[in-house]
Write a structure and sequence with these properties.
17 helices; alpha/beta
């Protein structure tokens, strides 16, 4: 789409350049060690859009090149003097030399292409990445029920959602030995205060985006540099929110049951007192004094 539709759409629904740039900082712990092992590290961003990633990596010491098919997006990049090219992502990858790229990224691109093209992209990345280089693929998270059933289809250029386990398997199948799923942009409060999880949180509170980061095989010494970011857990999952919601409902049910038991105990206490009064009344009716004074009660009724 080169009629400015898509750029206008992105400006409205994706967020400002500053907000997206801030979000992308989560990847810095993964890419920063590459400056220690690669000379003049190059980052190639496929579907570079407005250039938020190009700006971030340039500010952190990387050479950066962006690829996109949308001239309006590239015009925004050129305003910031970024090195960009109007080209097809797969064609660009096929033209890159072997072992020439430190970071190959595609942010919200792969949901726009076919699975065969995605597979070709991942396979090509294993060739063009340097040893220890990183492939970063970010996309909407279909584990979020509202994202997968509504929000994903707001963008008319989307093809179909890609489940995290499928993308994880694909990078493994294509030869990457080290990989990580990052669930992104979820609410931290849902993790910190699980007792406040609501039904709408279960439906729409799962991290709305996720990324798979895959690292090309390198020596054990080099991999040690990346141990910390790859060992962390990121974001909220559907299972976690559903379990927290169930726990919350179980706690409420137990609270209601405790109150019900308390009410039942009071009711049993009242019933016991009533039975005691009934027993005393029966004893009174069956007593001799009650029988002997029966004529007095009848006489009183006559007078009334």
């Amino acid at each position: 789409m080169n009629d400015n539709f898509y750029k206008s759409f992105e400006d409205l629904h994706r967020g400002s350049r500053d907000s997206i740039g801030k979000r992308l900082e989560i990847y810095l712990p993964f890419i920063t060690p590459l400056k220690e092992i690669h000379e003049d590290p190059l980052s190639v961003d496929l579907g570079c859009g407005r250039g938020e990633w190009l700006e971030l990596v340039t500010n952190h010491g990387f050479k950066a090149k962006g690829i996109d098919l949308d001239e309006n997006m590239l015009a925004e990049c050129k305003k910031h003097s970024f090195d960009v090219e109007c080209a097809d992502a797969i064609t660009t990858l096929n033209n890159l030399p072997d072992n020439s790229v430190s970071v190959l990224s595609a942010f919200h691109l792969i949901e726009h292409i076919s699975f065969s093209q995605l597979k070709e992209l991942v396979l090509a990345s294993t060739r063009v990445l340097k040893d220890g280089g990183l492939l970063i693929l970010e996309t909407p998270n279909p584990e979020n029920i509202i994202v997968s059933t509504v929000d994903f289809y707001i963008d008319p250029t989307h093809s179909r959602p890609i489940p995290p386990m499928l993308l994880e398997f694909l990078v493994m199948f294509c030869g990457f030995e080290t990989y990580k799923i990052l669930r992104l942009h979820g609410s931290q409060s849902l993790i910190e205060t699980p007792s406040k999880v609501t039904l709408i949180d279960v439906l729409g509170g799962v991290s709305p985006n996720y990324a798979v980061i895959a690292q090309k095989k390198s020596s054990a010494v080099l991999q040690e540099l990346f141990k910390e970011p790859f060992s962390k857990e990121y974001g909220t999952t559907l299972n976690l929110l559903a379990q927290n919601y169930d726990t919350k409902q179980d706690a409420k049910l137990q609270e209601h049951n405790a109150k019900l038991q308390e009410h039942n105990a009071k009711l049993q206490e009242h019933n016991a007192k009533l039975q005691e009064l009934n027993a005393k009344f029966e004893a009174l009716l069956n007593s001799k004094s009650w029988r002997y004074t029966a004529w007095l009660r009848k006489l009183f009724q006559l007078f009334r």
